Amino acid sequence: MTPVNLKSLAEQLHLSIATVSRALRDSHEVSEATKERVRALASALHYEPNAYASSLRRNISKTIGVVIPKVANHFFALAINGIEEAARQSGYHVLIYLTHDDYEREVSIVQHLKGGRVDGLLMSVASGTQDFAHLHSLKDANIPIVFFDRVCAEISTAKVTTNDYESGYQATEHLMAAGCQHIAHLLISNNLSIGQYRHQGYLDALTAHGLPIDEDLVMSGVMDNEQNVSLIRELLLRRPDIDGIFASVERLAISAYRVCHELGRRIPEDIKIIGFSNLEAAALLDPPLSTVTQPAYDIGREAARILLRAVEKKKAVLPEQSLVLASTLFARQSTGG
Amino acid sequence: MTPVNLKSLAEQLHLSIATVSRALRDSHEVSEATKERVRALASALHYEPNAYASSLRRNISKTIGVVIPKVANHFFALAINGIEEAARQSGYHVLIYLTHDDYEREVSIVQHLKGGRVDGLLMSVASGTQDFAHLHSLKDANIPIVFFDRVCAEISTAKVTTNDYESGYQATEHLMAAGCQHIAHLLISNNLSIGQYRHQGYLDALTAHGLPIDEDLVMSGVMDNEQNVSLIRELLLRRPDIDGIFASVERLAISAYRVCHELGRRIPEDIKIIGFSNLEAAALLDPPLSTVTQPAYDIGREAARILLRAVEKKKAVLPEQSLVLASTLFARQSTGG
DNA sequence: TTTATTTACGCAAACGTTTTCAGTAGGCGG
DNA sequence: CCGCCTACTGAAAACGTTTGCGTAAATAAA
After folding, report:
1. CA of B315 to C1' of D7 (A)
2. pLDDT tens-digit profile of B214-228?
3. Which residue ranges form the domains of chain A, and what is each CATH number?
4. On chain B, which terminus has fewer CB atoms closer than 10 Å, C or N?
5. Distance B15 CA to C30 C1' (A)
6. Integer Cα distance of A54 and A62 in angstroms
């Protein structure tokens, strides 16, 4: 049971290792006849080049890392789909890491990745991340990084997002057009840039339409869903005047639904809800949920493409660049239909 | 800007490469004092060992591959979550590959993985896969494989599933208890073992309760959702006597909902529906969907644990072994409450 | 014919790590 | 003083691949 590697192939073909290697990489330095012989034997023996030897020698891993908070979330699942597609097309492999929105884990993951395991990194930062030293240090390790969705303003590199500000603005405007006067905003932990942009859209929309800004109507979600349900319940009980909810993240919209059902608030009669969401089943909810739907697959795919272009050109540091893909607002019954 | 590797560390410390390597791996052959010096410098310079050099030398990649049909599916998303957790705990990395239920892709992926990129493989087979040569050949490459959910009966190895037969039986029984007499079964492409088990449960439940078996009520889903909607519409129009639907895969339950809404069939008054599903929002659908919910996270985590144990022991081939984790039936309004 | 040039291949050195095998020094009993 | 053991360290050979350089033969240019 001799191993099937360049050496064994070379011996059987009475060629040197170098020639076999070159033949398999289709080098012009090898005659067509020889290439044919080599390829024939290689495929007969099911030769697969050792990825690690190749990576070590060429200092290229043909692998990208994807660091995201979670995967059990339709947005990220779709994004991974797009990433995998782009990677596959370019012959790259995809390593997945979940931070669970934990800063320590994020740091630890990034630190490990500097060992050369990946040629580049795609990332959506954890909501708890405030210090970006671990990300800065990637540049020293010559690893390009592209942020998607949850970008990091402090790092100058390429970023792919959706039009968070406009989407927040539109969603709020949509609620106002439906007659809402007291609109709550449920947002994700507020040190995330996307939360800030969406929130700014919400604020500006209110102001533009002459509604007062009331910070008491703004709620930051936490990690735990049950806790979010409690928080929303408290909010709705404390402020019975709330007649509209803008949830800028899917989980919070779902939690808001639960609370409304529980408290007997009718949607959309008593309270209207719109949420950022990629849920396929949004149209089947009771009632169908109006959504701002992000082009998650495209965001993932474009982020990966940008990263891969940089990797191929060995550009460790990407120019500050923002690609913004528009979200779509689907008006359904939860905002009056 | 000298690279920070064993060689540079050794030079700065006036030690040999060997000693530095041993110190970092906490070998007993190195004095505590030396270890301390080495560790101090290593962490000061943020030394990260080159994963590829290490993998090449030790013939161990500390990486497992996960090959699944898709990720934009709550079951697989949760499974990945469990897999990542188990892998992280053991210091392993996770490579993700999506087959999109395409046999050719599955073969190509598996073939590439034999290059030593992974120490082991977790897999849910594509629905189109009929030939298993590519999987058999993994044994030659010394790569252990563990199947989860969509297992492959032809390969003898460890498998982690849910109790598909019993779940199909229970779901069907649940519909009958709710008064259904003409129960359709929407199942995933029928060469998958899980589809067969669930279907057998359905059949046996019907027989056990004296209902006739009618093959015209059994529908195999396809890849495209829109096409599934058409198929279901045809079925319901052709057989207006259908008063219960057992969808043994989430997508088909969602599609069934769409068709019922479209055709004006009331759920549960006219037709009752239960589906395999991991959708968090199932309880918020219109009406709340009764589900058979699989322990997706646990399935992923346990499959990974079994695989990792084998990998650590360098057991390339795992004993035939089945771990069955029970699903839970949640009765909601779609079957009468 | 001689001299360039091309073509086709081999040698050997990397890449960074792990590990086997030796080797040195000091301590200790005899 | 000799031999031996222990404790530490170093030299060097792997792992499988890629690639700069050298070289022989074959072909083209002069």
Report:
1. 36
2. 999 999 998 888 999
3. 6-49 (no CATH), 60-162+296-327 (3.40.50.2300), 164-294+329-335 (3.40.50.2300)
4. N
5. 36
6. 10
